[in-house]
Amino acid sequence: MKISIVTVAYNSEKTIANTIASILGQESREGLQVEYLIIDGASTDGTVQVAESFRQRLEEKGVDYKILSEPDKGIYDAMNKGIALATGDVVGILNSDDWYEPEALAVVAQTYETTGFDLMYANIRLIKENGESILKKAKLKKYITSRHWNHPTTFIRRELYDTFTYRLDNLYADLDMLIRIRKAGYHVEIVDRVLANFRMGGASNQKTLSAMMKRIRFRYNVYRSNGYSPLCIFECLMMDVGKFLLS
């Protein structure tokens, strides 16, 4: 099988080397092909140069490596671009400051081969700014919420992206994607293993009151546009309070 990984980047020269190195360090698995796409938003720092510095090593490992650098309309527009270029059986999205565990892609391949999932996700390790880590478990509940789901460990069958794309008007377009796929009745698998590490401190973790209120509005909009009761506001508040306390 073939797995495509998309990393969206913009002025990420300080962190993207660690992200790319985690692709380079993936355990080999017989029959597994890896395609890796860096979608850069016309960075003004050394992001593209850092990405290019890995080309020879990735290609020697057999990774089909592509770098695209051009202006975009934001992170989800860049994700959509990368997915449109992807040719794998399944696609994963790895942020430019996050990284995979060495066995991540081998586990995804094994899970796909044994279950034929449409969407899977796994546990994640949240890395706080002080270096401490928190385990966030993946769960499959009837009530769909980001409390039980981890986007950097999510892999979706490529064919689904012919139907579903990330909306460009919401910070939580990834949650919106999850809800729409779940509600459509596709086959979802959970893997009880840590497959990725998420560095806290980005746009979804800023602590200012205005940033928190903006996130709550965006999350509420996702839930309501997918048919949730107005009472989902309590879920939105709980999530942001929880992030504040954890960070």
Distance between the termini: 38 Å
Overall radius of gyration: 17 Å
Parts with pLDDT < 50 across at least 5 consecutive residues: none
Protein structure class: alpha/beta
In DSSP terms (H or I, runs of 4 or more residues), the helix count works out at 8
Mean pLDDT: 94
Give the beta-strand count: 9
| Inertia-based shape | globular
How large a portion of the residues is in β-strands, by DSSP E? Answer: 15-25%
Largest sheet: 9 strands, mixed
Helix and strand pattern: EHEHHEHEEHEEEHEHH
The level of helicity is 25-40%
Characterise the protein shown here.
The chain has 247 residues and is α/β, with parallel strands linked by helices. The protein is 35% helix and 23% strand. It contains eight helices and nine strands. It has helices spanning 16-24, 47-52, 55-60, 75-85, 104-115, 173-183, 209-225, 233-246, and strands at 2-9, 33-40, 64-69, 90-93, 99-100, 119-127, 133-136, 155-157, 188-199. Strands 1, 2, 3, 4, 5, 6, 7, 8 and 9 form a nine-stranded mixed β-sheet that branches. It is globular and about 55 Å long. It starts with a strand and ends with a helix. The mean pLDDT is 94.
Q: Which key features would you list for this structure?
A:
single chain; 247 residues; alpha/beta; nine-stranded mixed beta sheet; 8 helices; 9 strands
Structure in a nutshell:
By secondary structure, the chain is an alpha/beta fold. The chain is built from eight helices and nine strands.
